[in-house]
Amino acid sequence: MVYLTRVEHFNAAHKLYNPNWSQDQNEQVFGKCANENWHGHNYELYVTVKGRPNPDTGFVCDVKALSKIINQYVIEQLDHKNLNMDVPFMKDQLCSTENLAIAIWKQLQPQIPAGVQLHGIKLYETPRIFVEYFGE
Fold first, then answer.
1. What is the dihedral of CA 81, 6, 56, 54, to 10 degrees?
2. What does UniProt give as the signal peptide span (predicted)?
3. What pLDDT is recorded for position 85?
4. What does the CA dihedral 113, 63, 118, 77 come to, rounded to 10 degrees?
5. N or C: which end of the chain has fewer CB within 10 A?
């Protein structure tokens, strides 16, 4: 089995806020991330697929095609957007990096070409904080 990873980048704003809690409780749990006026991140997205190399091409997957899928179904939906307000697939979810990684998986998984499997999503919120998701 060979693992192939494509890296993409997007910028987005969000706020961590549980509407069932008071402002004080949100600030206690989420700190600056509960800022009423949002805050942003420069996200790095690693999408890893796995499969056997095609004997005719030597490729696990056409990287250009994978990039187009990631851009169409994820990056164009997220880049320079407010995750809480502008992204339909994040509607009614707490916009944590964990939930965002799961939502990205759900966007990509049905689009992955036949013969290839989505292996993992790694999403960097900051250079020191990232989430990995490998499906359910």
1. -100
2. none
3. 95
4. -90
5. C
Please, which residues have CB within 8 angstroms of residue 16's CB and are 6 or more apart in sequence?
26, 30, 33, 34, 94, 95, 96
Is the model's pTM score more than 0.90? yes
Give the model confidence (pLDDT) of 49-84 as tens digits.
999 999 999 999 999 999 999 999 999 999 999 999
Active site residues: 33, 80, 125
- The answer to whether 47 touches 66, Cβ cutoff 8 Å, is yes
Helix residue spans in 21-134 (DSSP H): 23-30, 63-70, 76-78, 97-108
- Token pair 């989430």 in the structure block, residue: 131
Count how many residues are written for the chain: 136
